[in-house]
Amino acid sequence: MTSSLAELEQPPLEPPSLFGNTVSGTLHDLSIPIGVMPPLVRESAPAFAVSERSEAFRRRFYPDTNLKTWCDWHWQYANRITSLDQLGRMLRLSPEELAAGTGLAALPLAITPYFAAQFNPDDPADPLRRTMVPTVAERTLNPGESADPLGEDGHSPVPGLVHRYPDRVLFLATDTCAAYCRYCTRSRCVGKPHTAGTAGATRKRWPAAIEYIKNHPEVRDVLISGGDPLTMSDAALDHLLSRLRSIPHVEIIRIGSKAPIVMPQRVTPSLLRVLRRYHPLLMSIHCTHPDELTPESTEALRRLADAGIPLGSQTVLLKGINDNVADMKSLLHGLLKSRVRPYYLYHCDPVQGTAHFRTPIFKGVDIIRGLRGHTSGYAVPTYVVDAPGGGGKIPLMPDYVQGYDGEDLVLRNYEGGLYRSYDPAAPAVCEPHAGTAQGGEPCW
Ligand SMILES: *Cc1c(COP(=O)(O)O)cnc(C)c1O
Ligand code: SF4
């Protein structure tokens, strides 16, 4: 079993070689021992990687489903786990998970079978499981929390479009996701029962949003998000991308998605054929923990990178899940190996019912301090706090500036050592973060 599974992990993009991997056999050489023939299973092999872990889960819980079906994203999407009853047959649910219920939560429960296969069935503290399985804690509205902490609704000139920064817009193309993250910033508007599964409501907003972009030549960058845009069909994406691409002042288009992580099978050759027509197209991958980097998600990322799509990552800092340097580093290194450039690390927004995920804000600064200088600069994301009320993303970083000593600027390096840099042109009196020096010029 193991050897044929290992075989399956190699996507059969090329037909088995006519000459096989045998030493001397030719096609007509009937003396080749059966044991060294290319395995017959290749003929019905899936069009996607399947890890041993996923395969064991499929055999146990979906024995009637063959590998080809398992690798079909439509099947993964249609067979999402949406009730605690279903989940309870696969995981040993904790009292906190059992008490979550599903009716009252702001967000529905939906997990693809593939992603559920990655959970530890016996450990409610398993990082991936915590991001997806609701607990009773999310029913509480905690101090400082609200439904729309970023004030996105107030920055929407037309429904479904957020125009907060001068030259770029956020296009909320759908309200559906492949799986729902319990800490979602947009829990107020994604996966709502009245729209879930019906793309109509959000799609009706597209023409006005596209018209707005057409009429605003300053918009040179459109970020398509949601919801998860990769829950849409290839045809719908093609339609949206072609409309946006036909606007001359739109220079770049970005897609924000978690599908490569929770439903990697979505990254099909036909999706890639659509996406490559609209370059320059970039993608931000929402990822959380190194355990998400499975053979499956790694294949999805490889396919996207091979299609020439520059990949970035977005990660939310989550208490007890990824709030330590070791796990964060392992995630960031794994992403770089998959050609994903770490982009943003977010403080967990104060959305209602998420206090159990939130770290102190300066935890993120500590993590950046543990990364910068200690590992490749390419692996270090920018830590941002999305300012409540609509101030936008505000970067926070460790302070390496000690201040001036005479004509020297004193700087602290990543190891804590102090270094002087002769800087005579600087204002004579300048305290760190004093705001302005003499003459009203900012210090730095
Ligand atoms: C994050 C975000 C963007 C994109 O910001 P970048 O820093 O350019 O990645 C655009 N609009 C809104 C509303 C956002 O929240
Ligand atoms: S994929 Fe994004 S939009 Fe969807 S639930 Fe997760 S955080 Fe929210």
Automatic annotation (TrEMBL):
Its cofactor is pyridoxal 5'-phosphate; [4Fe-4S] cluster. Residues 163-381 form the Radical SAM core domain. It catalyses: L-lysine = (3S)-3,6-diaminohexanoate. [4Fe-4S] cluster binds at C177, C181, C184. It is an enzyme of class 5 (isomerase). The modification N6-(pyridoxal phosphate)lysine is found at K393. It comes from the Bacteria. GO terms for molecular function: 4 iron, 4 sulfur cluster binding; L-lysine 2,3-aminomutase activity; metal ion binding. Its EC number is 5.4.3.2. The keyword 4Fe-4S applies. Keywords: 4Fe-4S, Iron, Iron-sulfur, Isomerase, Metal-binding, Pyridoxal phosphate, S-adenosyl-L-methionine. Pfam families: LAM_C (PF12544), Radical_SAM (PF04055). InterPro entries: Aldolase_TIM (IPR013785), LAM_C_dom (IPR025895), Lys_aminomutase/Glu_NH3_mut (IPR003739), Lysine_aminomutase (IPR022459), rSAM (IPR007197), rSAM_sf (IPR058240). PANTHER family: L-LYSINE 2,3-AMINOMUTASE (PTHR30538:SF1), LYSINE 2,3-AMINOMUTASE-RELATED (PTHR30538). Belongs to the radical SAM superfamily. KamA family. This is L-lysine 2,3-aminomutase.
